[in-house]
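User: For my dataset I need records formatted as: sequence, then structure tokens, nothing else. Please produce one.
Assistant:
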Amino acid sequence: MTGWTSQELDAIEAADELEIASVGRDSALGKPTTIWVVREGDDLFVRSVRGSAGGWFRGTQVRREGRISAGGVTKDVTFVDPDDDLDERIDDAYRSKYRRYPSNTVGSVLTEQARSTTLMLTPRSATGRGPARVPTPGVSR
């Protein structure tokens, strides 16, 4: 069980882009970044076009927690390293979903560099963790 409802999976899959933000060392949620997301079965996956140099990806490595928003769904998530045997299926999901884009654009998420940053998004409620602390504007902690 992935923790996603079929309605959430369908809505996120239908969305062209996803907003992703990671939780920092101070437990505050960072600035969201717009990226692509794909569905493979009952799981959702993201990759960094810039590989491990991507700022949003580096943020996910600090606490492995964050928040995503796409297709009207907003969820606190855990970032999980998937099995390498899924790479080809995830590549196919990117090719299929984003086929209307130029091949070099789609190809940017199919490189070894991008593949090495593949993350599975798991709803945090499914892992028993609570939501991130969202800082109040103008209030320092």
